[in-house]
Amino acid sequence: MSGRRWWMGLGLAAAAGAALWVYLRPAPLPPPPTAARLATLEAQRDALQARFRAAVLAHNEKSLRDAPQAGIMIGIPTSFTRSILQQVVVGLFGQTTLTLRNLKVHKEGAVKAKMLVRKRTLGKFVLDVDVRQVQGVLAPRTPTVDFGRNRIGLLLPVRLASGRGEASLRFRWDSKGLTANLMCGDVDVTRPVSGQVVPRDYEVAGSFAIAASASAIVLRPRFPDLEVRIFVDPSEEAWAVVDGVVRDRRKGCEIALNKVDVKEKLAGILGKGFNVKIPQKIFKPVILPAGISQSLQVQGLTLDLKVSSKGVLVANDRIWYGADVALNPRRPAPGSP
Amino acid sequence: MRGWRTRVHRLLALAAAVCAVGLAGGCRRRESVEATRARAREAVALSQIANLQQLVEKAEAGQLVSADRIAISLSEETAKSIFDASLPQEKTLAERVKVRIESAQPFFNGNNAGLLFQASARGTTIGATARLELGGRLVDFRIEKGRLTASVELVHFKVLDSSLGDMGSDVLESLVRANQPAIAAMLPTLEVPVHLEQSIPVAGLDEGVVQVKPGVLPFQITLAEVIPVNRRLWILLDVKAGPWQAAAAAAGAE
Questions:
Q1: Are A225 and A206 in contact (CB under 8 A)?
Q2: Shortest Cα distance, chain B CAs vs residue A154, angstroms
Q3: How close B238 gets to chain A, by Cα (Å)?
Q4: Residue A107 CB burial class (10 angstroms; 0-12, 13-18, ≥19)
Q5: What residues of chain B lie within 8 A of the CB of A7, using their CB?
Q6: Cys-Cys with A232: which of A48, A195, B34, B228 at CB 3.0–4.6 Å?
């Protein structure tokens, strides 16, 4: 290759290279945005964010404006809280059984009648009612729940709906005097009787105080004990049994025993009812299901959190809870090497 | 022999000249850090504005359903402290460069949960150093065993400056690009410091006369919507309580 040809080749190569450069070079970048352009865009963004906040406040989240501002905020809908309380309270009361066992009622007296010229004691009776068991079942209805400033009021209609009682009735008659003893003698009969619990309606009224624990919102119950009185209505069979106690005697005796009026006395005993106190501790504190963690696990490390509550706001739409968290020194996560 | 050597040298020079001119066409002088950041800010702001316009329309039409949802909100500052607590994270890439993620800055604006990680890189053989910026976003929010977490997706990275100059920065960027999955794995996940209970157990009562069976109220909590706006991350959860489940009497009776 002569020097001339070589130089021609080099010139052609340079021209080809220049053409290649023109073809391959990237389009020049536009100048970067100016500070003013960026400020305009970010102001436009912030204005849209403000519009968004205003729309949210106007339409859905009226209480957001007053919610405690903090690093973490949790807003639990009142509709959800209401549903929790209603289901917990109805669930508990619907699973409540009142059971009275081994109640003993004793009644005694004398029966007097005019015999010829003066009143004489015909005999003495003793009536023992041994209530082996009375069981009543509660049937709650949907409670009314209203949200106050720092409390949730609750009114629960509850019915002592059904139940059954079983007792043993012992009637003793001790005739006094020769005539009475001849006519009637002594009586000592024991009969089983049963009856149904009489339905009655009650209302449980109280409230739940709303408090922020370190990590969650806790609803603490404030309810009085509920006094329930169980009435038992003896069955037809029970009355027939009582009738039989008298009817099975001789005629003269029946007259004397009718004066005792066992049925009336039994009705009097059962008519007073039996008191049952449902303790207020049937209500338990309810912890709402969204709270702030006490620790985090990040990249295999367990980080303890120090939670500082910033307050609770109870509004119509939400219960707001705000807290700041500070991360404490690390410790290895459980099970990590 | 001498002529042959001359010819070879001339051919090599010719090829080198063609290649150099051609390759120069594919290169561009690196922009300044300020210019790169300004472009990134512009792109982010434009994307946020577009997202916000849709969000505002939805909210103004009353179509943003939130009233029956649990709302959880996390500030940028709190998120930053959670991220920073798990940093620094360090990893060696291709046995050549040690990358160390130093700190994180979340940006919850314009319906965009962005993250900017500051990182450094150091050559393992030669002592060259560089500063990097990794951009990411929070994705894949989920509730697992009562914990609310999100992953970080690596969106872009940039070598801000390098002790080896532009060429070193280009080489480092290529290396980072080639090892993107390894770097993405270094990015910490976000655990929002809340606990979401799956049920409320309620103890029963055995007072002799009064017997109450214990029970459990279960919850169904699912993620509904994530709205990063006004420097806060808003997470809306769909919730449903019940039905009440009575347990065996002996199990929880006091």
A1: no
A2: 18
A3: 10
A4: middle
A5: none
A6: A195
Can you read off the two tokens belonging to residue A283? Answer: 């209500």
Helices (H), B61-159: 76-85
HSE (side-chain half, CA atoms, 13 Å) at B80 = 15
Residue of B nearest to A227 (CA): B210
Please give the structure tokens belonging to residue B77: 């500052």
Domain ranges of chain A: 94-287
| Contacts of range A49-58, beta carbons closer than 8 Å, 24 or more positions apart | A49/B52, A49/B109, A49/B110, A49/B229, A49/B230, A51/B56, A51/B60, A52/B52, A52/B55, A52/B56, A52/B59, A52/B229, A52/B230, A53/B229, A53/B230, A55/B56, A55/B59, A55/B60, A55/B64, A56/B59, A56/B64, A56/B66
Chain A residues with CB under 8 Å of B217 CB are 84, 87-88, 91
Which chain A residues contact residue B34 at CB under 8 A? 32
**Closest partner CB to B38 (pick from A10, A33, A278):** A33
Contact indicator for A303, A328 with CB cutoff of 8 Å: yes
Helix (H) / strand (E) element for A313: namely strand A301-314
- Give the C-alpha separation, B210 to B170, whole Å: 79
The structure tokens listed for B196 are: 């979401």
The label of the residue with tokens 């500063």 reads: B131
Give the best residue of B46, B66, B89, B187 to mutate against chain A (max A CB count within 10 A).
Answer: B66
Chain B residue closest to A97 (CA)? Answer: B211
Least Cα separation, residue B154 to chain A (angstroms): 17
Task: Give the pLDDT confidence score for residue A26 in this predicted structure.
Answer: 66
Burial of A11 (0-12, 13-18, 19+ CB in 10 A): exposed
User: What's the pTM value of the predicted model, to 2 decimals?
Assistant: 0.81
B154: Cα within 13 Å, side-chain hemisphere: 20
**Residue ranges of chain A with per-residue pLDDT less than 70:** 1-2, 22, 24-26, 115-116, 329-337
**Cα–Cα dist A69/A75, whole Å:** 12
Say if residues A63 and A149 touch (Cβ distance below 8 Å): no
User: Cβ distance B186 to B89 under 8 Å?
Assistant: yes
Which ipTM score applies to this complex?
0.83
Establish how many alpha carbons lie within 13 A of residue A265's alpha carbon, considering only the half-sphere containing its beta carbon. Answer: 21
Angle at B65 between CA B59 and CA B71, to 5 degrees: 105
**Gap between the Cα atoms of B136 and B113, Å rounded:** 9
Strands, DSSP E only, in chain B?
A: 69-75, 89-93, 97-109, 112-123, 129-144, 147-162, 190-196, 199-202, 205-206, 210-212, 215-229, 232-241, 245-246
Show the domains of chain B with their CATH numbers. 33-66+76-195 (3.15.10), 199-252 (no CATH)
**pLDDT (tens digit per residue) in B238-248:** 999 989 998 86
